[in-house]
Every structure is written in C-alpha cells, then in structure tokens.
Amino acid sequence: MLPEWAKLLIGLAAIIGVGVAGTLLTLPYVEVVLIVIAAVGACAVAFVADRWPRRFGWRCPVLSLDDQPRLRELVVDAARIAGFDAVPKVHVSAWAEVQGHRTRRGRPILLVGLPLLVAADEAELHTLMVRELLAARRWRWHERWAVHLFMAHHPDWSWLGEASALLRKALWAETRSTVGSERFAAGMRAELLVGGAFGWHVARYVAPFSSKGGAADVYESFLWKIQLDGLLTRLRPEPPLPDAAEEIGKGAVAGDGVLLLPVPSGVMSKVPAELAIRLGKVISHKMLGRGGFALGARPYRMADLPAEVWARVGEFQRENVLDAATKLLGRQATDLDVVELAVAGRAGELEWWHKEQSCPHPTPGVCVLLPLFDVALRRRGYAHEHTFAQRELVGPVGDRINLVEIATKAERGEPYGILLGGLMTGRDPDADAIRLAAESLAGGDPTGWFERLYAESASGDAIVPWDSRSPHFLLTEWARPGRGRALVVGAGLGDDAEHVAGLGYETVAFDVSESAVRLAGERFPGSEVRYQVADLLAPPAEWRHAFDLVVEVMTVQALPEPLHGRAIAAIAEFVRPGGTLLVIASGREEGGPAFAPPWPLTPSEIGAFATGGLETGKVEDLRDGERHRWRATFHRPV
User: Fold this and answer.
1) Which end of the chain has fewer CB atoms at under 10 Å, N or C?
2) Quick check: 341 and 470 in contact, CB under 8 A?
C-alpha cells in the first residue's frame, strides 16, 4: 500500500526503535531524545504517505482545466452538488478510476482515470465525480483508508469488507438520491465496463512488453478499440462485487454475460502525447512489479512492433493454455485436448492468467481456443492486417479468417474443416477421406473406404474430418428427453449416439466400419449404447419399423449420389408407427456442384425421406454464409 521510500523509512524507524530500547540505560539523555525524535519523525512521514493515496501527486500529473473547458464545467458542477465552494484540483490517473480526496485545509482533489476520460460520457463521468466528492466530504481519513485498503489490497479481510460495504452502500444511497437512480446506475455500469475493457486491453497488448518501457500508444489504441472495433459492445465483464449488484441495476448484464451499453463518446477525444507517454510508463511499472524498467528503456509504440514479436506473444499464450490443460488432465496436453475441453464446457476450469480478466469474447471456451488457432494459422502464413485486431487474419492468397468465429464453431462441436484436423497438424483434414474414397470407388467398393479411414485414424495415419469429439450442435439444439428405442445411423465414433442415450432412449448405434465401432466402444467404456456393425444398404430385417426415434446425421451424403435413393429408403423403414426421423445434412441446390466427398443433399433428396408412409414434419433450410445445411423431421402416423 505504501510507496517504496515510505516502507524504507518505516524499516529505519523500526531499527532505530530497537536501538533505543537497547541503549536507553547507557546513552546520555540528549542522545536518547534525538533518537526518539528521529524515529517518531520517520513514522510520521510514513503515516502521512499512507494517508495520501499513492497514485496522487508523484505518479499522477495535474490536468489543467483551462485546456479542458467541458471537463471544467463537469468538475465545477460536481463540486457544487457535493457542497464544495472551491474548484477541485484534478489529477489524471493511468487506470480507469475516480477517487475523491481533500487536503488538510479542506480543498477538494479529484483523481480521474484517463480511460474514463476517453470512454465515459459526460453524464456518467459527472455522476462518478459527484460520488467521490461526496465521499471526500463525508468520510474521515480512517474511513477512506478502510475502503481503499479493502478494495485494492486486502479483499479477503472479512471485518474490513463489512465495514467497507457499509460505507459504500451509504455513499451510493446518498449519490443516488442526489443525481437520480437512472444516472447513478448508468455511471456505475460505465465504471465497471470501462474498467474491465481497459484492464483486458492492458493485459492483452501492454503487459507482454512492459519491460520495454512505457507504451506511447496505449490510450490511442484503447480509443481505437472503442470507436472502431466495438470493444465496449463486446465485453464480457467480471461479475461485480456482491454488494454492488443490486445498485448497478437489473438489466445491466444480458443473459450471455455481455453488457448492453451503447458506445459512449468520451469527454476527451484526443490524448496529449506527453500525458500518454507518462501514464504509459506508470502502467508498465505496475506490470513489472518492481521499481523500474530495464536499463535504457524508452517509450515505444505497440503499433510499430514487428509481426514476429506479436507471434511470440501468441506462442506464449498458447503455452499458458497448454500448461493449464496439462495440470487439469494430469498428463501432457495437446491442442486437441484443449478443443475437447472447450467442447465439453470445461474451459472455465483451466487456470491461466486470462481467466482473471474481463473479456470481449463470447465464452471462456473461445478464449482458450484463440491462442491455439492464432499460432496454427501464423505458422501457415497468415498475418494480422491491423495490430490491434488480433482476432482477424489474412492468408497468403488473401482469404480472411475471424478467430472468434472459428473458435465459436469449434466450441459447439461443429466439424469445421481446418479446425480439428488441418489447423492443428498442418494437414488438410479432408485429404485422407478424399484419397481413400477415390481409391475405393475406383475399385467398385463405394463403402469400403470408411473402414480404411477409421483404421488409419487409429494409428494416426489419417484424419476423420467429421470427428468433432462432440454431438452435432444441430442435434443438441433439437433433441429433448424421451422414451423408447432409438437408432443412430452411421454412428462413427459415437458422440451423437451417446447424446441420444443421455436423453433417456434405449439406443442402438451402427456403422459399416468395424474400426469405428471398436473405437466408439473404447471412447465410451461402460456405455449403455449398443454399438454394432451393420450396412445401411443391407440392414437387419428386424429393424424394420422398430424404432421410436431414428437419427441420421451426415451419413447419406457420405455415399455416392447413385446410392442416395437406396440409403434414404432404408432409413425411412426404420421408423415405427408414431415414431420420428431426424435428418441433418449438408445442402445444395438442385443440380448444384458437389465436391465429393461428401455429396450434399438437394431439396428433392430431403423430400424423398417422406416415403413408405412417412410424413414430412418440419424442414429447416439453414444457411450461414456459404454454409448450407438441412435439419428435417418426419413422422410415421400411428
């Protein structure tokens, strides 16, 4: 809590005190008095330093209100409302904070964070200044000490927390009655939002280079992220303090954890260069956790750092994630292990530095996947077009990838091409399937390539491109708990079958590949699903009209087009009276090209499932950019 020099003086005072205690009986009276005076003086200096917030004065320059007329009006009015006659002296801080203080003679002092000056609007900033000036007027020095000590240094001291909470609640109640409930809630939300956004920005962009000296463009880049990159609209903040939740107001945080606030226009639209450099040094000093920078360190611009430097940052973050996964799993983790944890919803269990930050990404799973995908894409020649938009990359041939989008798809288990295979290994995940299918078709065996693909995947010689290690997201969105018997067609490695069984169905799952059935059993030991080898084109006779729910996910499209009709008719026959068929498939227009495999289904092929007495339920034509999918249900009348 104290500056280093104050701590040194306290130490000296303690030493002198010990000396006094040991020599009182031997030293002359005058010398003893002088020693005691010196010790008391040292303690007094430390005490004064303790009362004076350490970010005031020597680290926070005074902001001339003559150069900021809009800000001056806000400060003067806030002081008037709080009951001060004098115009407060304004210091500007490196962090997103507002603090009120007054001198021994009663003059008010405001500490206003530069991030709030550039990001909070006038009404929000005015509310925060009123709150802090009311605190400066009402709180005595030991009350300010209790609140600031608890908030900044000792959040686990229960007795201090209770006292601090009472003081804050009383202050909030007075502020709310002074400025109005709506303005008070807006100011509190803005403080939480801007503080979280700036904290994330510093951790993501400044902290890796703190030993270089002050980042001259930390506030310039933060302003860019707010105005042009929508940072404040995308933020997923840390939860507010428990006793602040009610005051912040219901509706401040949406159900997905994203604050629903418009992008504000700050009181300061530009940051003076000298001020940015000085406060940038303060931030780097804080990141270092010691008393200075490396010898010869000078202010630098993050925007001027070469691409290879940012690449090392990505490598470091990836190592953090893998180390966290290794600790969680109890073995050396791989990139695919992290993907599996994200898909399983366990990303929040990973203990790594980013977990403690507010974040603009939609979920913790996306956060842990971003460094992995970033490193993999950089190794394949992708680069960032803008230094402060690290989620967007441009490929060697001009193709663009948004890391947040592909990480979101990976987290929900979508078998998205380059993610689960090629991106992690540098290989094209579709190449093995295309090669083996071509060889099998050339030999007159349209289904034999499935066994070769699964067998080679078990030895690591091939990639199964549709192996997402999770049930298909279109299945999980649709499915509801049920009863009866279920059949999963072309079950592969079992993820869809396990999900169906978890809904309460007595589940049978089959695949034409013996290796797939064996691997599914190994992946889910003790499963209630009955896995077996069967051929869709020649299924067991006892399966006719035998199942209450039949699930077909991307199986027919893996067969050559001439076999689609036979496969569709066979699947329709599995549904018993009163039962339901769910079909999920890639789609294309009638006569549209198919780059096989797979051979996506056309509208007429989807309609062909309504055969042998099946009736069409609901057909969903789902399109996401260039991606086209079907999700359709069919029912057999009782």
Assistant:
1) C
2) no
The H-assigned helical ranges of 447-588 are 448-458, 473-478, 495-502, 514-523, 564-572
End-to-end alpha-carbon separation of the chain, Å? Answer: 76
In eight-state DSSP terms, residue 551 is E
- Measured CA to CA, the distance from residue 71 to residue 128 in angstroms comes to 13
Exposure b/e, 46-67, CB count within 10 A at least 16 = b? beebbebbbbbeebbbebebee
Strand partners, 126: none
598 within 8 A of 586, measured Cβ to Cβ? yes
Alpha helices by DSSP H, listed for 83-212, are: 114-119, 122-138, 141-152, 158-179, 181-201
CA distance 96 to 115: 5
pTM: 0.61
Here the tokens at position 161 are 């927390």
Element at 476 (helix H, strand E)? helix 473-478
Contact 420, 468 (CB under 8 A): yes
On whether the CB atoms of residues 192 and 239 are closer than 8 A, the answer is no
H/E element, 333: none
**pLDDT tens figures, 469-492:** 778 889 988 988 999 999 999 999
239 pLDDT more than 80 = no
